[in-house]
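Key result, reporting period 2: structure in, sequence out.
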């Protein structure tokens, strides 16, 4: 991956991203070139896995920083240049296992940014699967959201149909971590499940052996 493009995405500099990709591929950013633009930028997003030791794509970079606007442009252009199956593959691609083996959605859960929930919602809209597990601990996005105190992200995931009972490699579901980390019943995240599916945590705990 071109390091300048990578840096521009990491800093959320959308204007520079578009300029660099245009320069890299020798085409201009004009309304008349819309078809070419989507094809070329789609290629750049897809090529992320093949560059760098961590197999990090531009979507991983956007998600880690929760640069929603930049991610939206990349995803829109990706949607215009690839079929649905390819888009899902890219959006759900995991990084190298030595750094966690996370998908972009996992990184949005860990980002600690105020726009993390918006980032998660955007990724889900474009095909991110909330139940994909990371490569090391088999954490789903919901496991990570609960463990990271990401209240609003957890709400987005539950509304999107995330599996409340998915087990990590330790045999624990998100409800277990919720009980372990937030024993106080008044903790806001304990009501994420109640407010979205009406699932009381006391009932979910019975699924933990």
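The corresponding designed sequence is given below.
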């Amino acid at each position: 991956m071109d390091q300048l493009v990578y840096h521009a995405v990491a800093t959320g500099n959308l204007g520079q991203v578009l300029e660099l990709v245009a320069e890299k591929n020798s085409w201009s950013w004009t309304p008349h070139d819309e078809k070419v633009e989507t094809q070329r930028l789609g290629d750049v997003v897809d090529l992320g896995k093949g560059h760098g030791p961590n197999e990090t794509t531009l979507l991983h970079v956007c998600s880690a920083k929760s640069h929603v606007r930049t991610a939206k442009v990349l995803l829109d252009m990706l949607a215009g240049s690839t079929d649905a199956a390819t888009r899902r593959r890219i959006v759900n691609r995991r990084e190298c296992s030595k750094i966690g083996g996370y998908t972009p959605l996992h990184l949005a859960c860990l980002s600690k940014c105020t726009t993390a929930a918006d980032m998660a919602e955007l990724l889900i809209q474009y095909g991110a699967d909330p139940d994909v597990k990371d490569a090391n601990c088999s954490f789903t996005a919901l496991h990570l959201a609960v463990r990271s105190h990401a209240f609003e992200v957890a709400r987005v995931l539950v509304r999107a149909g995330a599996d409340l009972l998915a087990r990590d490699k330790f045999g624990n579901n998100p409800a277990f971590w919720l009980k372990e980390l937030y024993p106080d019943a008044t903790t806001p995240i304990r009501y994420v499940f109640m407010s979205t599916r009406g699932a009381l945590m006391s009932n979910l705990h019975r699924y933990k052996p």
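The CA atoms of residues 176 and 205 lie 7 Å apart. The chain has one domain: 3-207. This case is discussed further under Risks and Mitigation.
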